[in-house]
Write a structure and sequence with these properties.
This protein has about 160 residues and is an alpha/beta fold. It is about 40% helix and about 20% strand. Bound molecules: coenzyme A. Coenzyme A (COA) binds near residues 72, 101 and 128.
């Protein structure tokens, strides 16, 4: 049984993340979405909210589980008996950061491996921060966020 972990902040989950999740879920027996809890980014949503949103938007995928984690990713990978970590690559600018993370993780745990999926073209520019910026000023979120997530983001910014 092949188990993969897709880790991230998901503050909030975007259509870009969902694209990676749907594609990765087809490649493995079980995909565990790991929601980072000890976040220095001062998140808009609590870890519980982020986990619940992810569960809602992945309810159509039988082999996907969602769980919060804190501490090192390599420890979460070990606890879950996962074989591999999945990350999305949007542009060349992601590459250096991802290379650094993958190599740090591999130095700490030599069995650690990362598989990178190239984000679909229509989401190549998307990030949670960009979407929050659009939301803050009342922009249209339909092309960026899953339908279930839109009212929750609007609520945070008191948008009708
Ligand atoms: N579509 C849309 N957006 C995407 C995306 C995609 N396919 N892939 C990444 N992003 C965006 C996110 O929305 C986020 O945007 P933001 O910065 O504007 O909020 C940004 O890219 C990066 O976020 P994310 O992919 O969630 O990664 P992260 O940097 O928040 O977290 C972890 C990465 C969780 C894997 C990493 O921090 C980690 O492993 N932490 C645990 C501690 C640890 O082990 N450290 C040692 C590793 S070096």
């Amino acid at each position: 049984m092949k188990i993969a972990i897709y880790p991230g902040s998901f503050d909030p989950v975007t259509l870009g993340h969902l694209d990676i999740i749907e594609r990765a879920a087809k490649m493995v027996d079980k995909l565990i979405i790991g929601v980072l809890n000890n976040n220095t980014k001062n998140p808009l949503f609590s870890a519980d909210d982020r986990v619940n949103m992810l569960k809602e938007v992945t309810s159509h995928l039988d082999n996907v589980e969602v769980e919060a984690f804190s501490g090192l990713l390599i420890d979460f990978v070990k606890r879950k008996n996962a074989d591999v970590v999945i990350r999305g690559l949007r542009a060349i600018t992601d590459f250096e950061y991802e290379l650094q993370m993958a190599q740090t993780n591999r130095t700490m745990e030599p069995t650690f491996d990362t598989i990178f999926l190239i984000t679909s073209l229509q989401y190549a520019y998307l990030s949670s921060s960009t979407v929050k910026e659009v939301a803050k000023f009342g922009g249209d979120l339909n092309k960026f966020l899953p339908q279930q997530v839109i009212p929750k983001v609007k609520d945070k910014y008191n948008i009708k």
